[in-house]
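dumping these here so i dont lose them again. two proteins, back to back, each one seq then structure tokens. dont judge the mess
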Amino acid sequence: MNALNRFTDPVYCIMRLIAGLMFASHGGQLVLGMFGGMPGSNNAFTQTGGWIQLIGGFLIAFGLFTRISAFICSGEMAVAYFMIHVGNASTSMAKFFPISSAGPLLFRALRLRSGQAALRNSLLLFCLVLLSHGTPAQEYKDFGKDRLNSSPRHGEWVDIKSGERTIKAFVVYPERKDKAPAVLVVQEIFGLTDWLRSLCDELAENGVIAIAPDFLNGQKFEDADSASKAISAVTHDQVKAVLDATADYALKIPACSGTIAVCGFCRGGGWAFMYANENQKLKATYSFYGEAPDSADKVKNIACPVYGFYGENDERVNATIPKAEELMKAGGKKYEPVIYKGAGHGFMRSGEPNNPQMREADRKARDEAWARWKTLLKQLP
């Protein structure tokens, strides 16, 4: 028998199995795309760490080279927490707990002569670390379920294949007797929220199939800082891959007329403008308060009209409009930005009547934007 695996205590064995499989599952999520994968996991650092956790986790689970495997995996996880988790944790407690737990575990793993009790305590401690890492943060305070629950339209979650990854998407169908255009709906920084799903229902009420892919694998956020950090980990290639797969799925929906368009909000508004340059099948792009392109290569392939919706009190975004107008005009392309008086950033959400924190100026801008958008939607072929 392996000298490092001489313990027969059933509690220890169960804890060893749990800790090992949790290591392996986390590693599998990083390198094999298990459980929907993880945004930002396609760089060399996280891939290497994923393989360490995957292989080391199985070794721990089956009692092979347990201590040295626990030492290596613990060290890798501790480094990952210091380099990644602390910078992205949404609260001071979330920053403190994993670090304070991973540190003692690493030092315990170094005590190769500490015997059964120390290793068992280390595994228990690390189980707590992994559980704290896997527990989702409190969601961003959301609204929109009332509309979804009372809607007569059919909405459903679907799985979309993108390479080896499976993407969750929410689809709402209009009530009409003929085939309908499909609009890809790109989320704001807070994730695929109930508000965004309720907006999909509102789009379907206006005669189109609305389909919103989930870029963050179910993550939602309670504050803009945490959300922004998570969204920043999503790369240009990942955005394109998700939207390409969603567009292909939409075109294959039997009720789709073969016409597709894209809309996006906040960061998603910028992604929608970007995607217009990537997919020549789009018939229209609706960019809501997203940053506009700043170079000719980012607009040269745009084949559809781009309609912009911006708040007056949002100069961070609005400062990008003149350059985009210049580039689109030079390329002979249609770009029609409209700035809504008195509105701030995110006015489609903050002007929503069901929003408990609705702002009156944003409500007025939202009403004007919807009136314009409804007219534009009717122009889709």
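---- next one ----
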Amino acid sequence: MIARGDYVGPLTKSAEAMFARAERRARRAAGMDAATQASSGRDARPASVLRDAVDQLGLKISTLRQWEDAGIIAFERRKGRRIVDAAALERLALVAKLRRAGFSVREIAWLSDTLPPNAAILRDALEARQAYVETARTRTIVGAIAKGGSKPARPPAHRAPPIERAA
């Protein structure tokens, strides 16, 4: 990267943006904390609460946008930015667990008549799916033992039945 002082071309908006990005990266690499960055000028931005939540849950921002478009999560917004409070973080964690348990986005949306579904409905659906999968695994193991084998002939299909919409 060319240093700002060594640059001989015209200082266009694009060149200024390039230097600003390079300076922010250099500050981050040097390990400056948020307080130091905030006092260093206009380029510093506070850390995004949404970014922290996404990193904590192992998700992507694009995934959250898809879930928000589907109506299974909703965020309070201030000045166009998503605000993640404790309730929204809990719903995000539950939706992520449901997706990992095999629910489709459509099935999650169908769990409740209101969108986004509340946390209690999400928790109940997750517990029901986990109980179903555990029962299916147990039946597979018992069936294999009854046939005299130590392993099932084919891997079990732990696909849950379709979700019925709550009344």
